[in-house]
Amino acid sequence: MATPLKSKPVQDMPPPGGFKPFSVAAEMPKPRISGFGLFALTAATCAVGFYIMGQGNIERRALKMEKRERRMAIVPFLQAEEDARFVRLSQKAKDEEARIMKDVPGWDVNEKVYNTQSWFVPTHVNNKSLW
After folding, report:
1. What is the dihedral of CA 2, 3, 7, 9, to 10 degrees?
2. Which sequence ranges are marked TM in the entry (predicted)?
3. I need a labelling partner for 60 at 20 to 30 A (CA). Which of 10, 42, 110, 115 fits?
4. Alpha-carbon gap, residue 91 to 121, rounded angstroms
5. CA distance 95 to 102
């Protein structure tokens, strides 16, 4: 069993005159730019970005219009080429029909096979001759 202490216990005490005072507040560095400055900088950045984006949209729209105008300018030439191809293939088809049906009496190559007065582009024109 432990024996009781005969002497008084020694307690840690502050130094004579007390401890030096110290600050418990965090010492944060002073901000370099204010809240209003951050807001103004953000607003200016957004304004410049929107301006640049708007200028890009104007340029892109102009390029799109130019492309559309170029395509519209060559449409008559493409249509003329397609018409010439159609005439060439139609004549080739009529020549082939005349060759095949030469032994059939009363067969007319230029006779319409449909009972209509309206003209339409036939879908059966042979495309093999193009390639």
Report:
1. 20
2. 33-54
3. 42
4. 14
5. 10
Amino acid at 115: N
User: How far, rounded to the nearest angstrom, does the alpha carbon of residue 110 sit from its chain's CA centroid?
Assistant: 52
C-alpha to C-alpha distance for 59 and 122, rounded to whole angstroms: 43
33 and 41 Cβ atoms separated by less than 8 Å: yes
Tokens coding 74: 């060559």
Assess contact for 86 and 121: CB atoms under 8 A.
yes
Task: From residue 3, give the alpha-carbon distance in Å to each of 6, 7, 8, 10, 77.
Answer: 9, 12, 14, 18, 120
